[in-house]
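Table S2 (continued). Query chain:
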Amino acid sequence: MEREVITVVSGLPRSGTSMMMKMLEAGGMEVLTDNIRTADEDNPKGYYEFERVKKLPEDTAWLEEAKGRIVKIISRLLLHLPPRYTYKVIFMRREMGEILASQTQMLVRRGKPTDTISDEKIAELFRKHLREVEAWMERQPNLDVMYVNYNEVLKNSREYAERINQFLGDTLNVEKMVSVVDAALYRQRRSGVVVG
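Corresponding output:
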């Protein structure tokens, strides 16, 4: 992995970003995290978050620390990445119904309301957001992106680990990446939510 490149794992909330961070860490990459948000029932293997990421675009000084490392940045914040750095982005995709079911389950566990907006409306907003983010990434000459489907990684973890390894410079330990993929955490298979 090039020392000057910032590797970013991104996607919608609940799309498998923490699993991908775990895979890359196991493969030998250094993670930029502060461990403020600890593992819980929703993410038993940890969140891999770095709080200062949430302050984009006001605070970008921390990106110097991210060179040669991996950092998790939720999709809506990608648009605030400054153009002065070079990025490799692994963008996670997941079945929309599963994302919504996973988010609902997390809200239920936290005692928060789940009926303020319909799943169909959320799905529509998420799809619009994804189109905007993907179009933005295509226009960035300093950004190289690989799309990874969470559902497919669980089925073909070795194939995806090898492809990710190639994308990131062929220096990762593929065996260790595969070893941390835990299908037991795949708890929102094909929810009954029909969102197209």
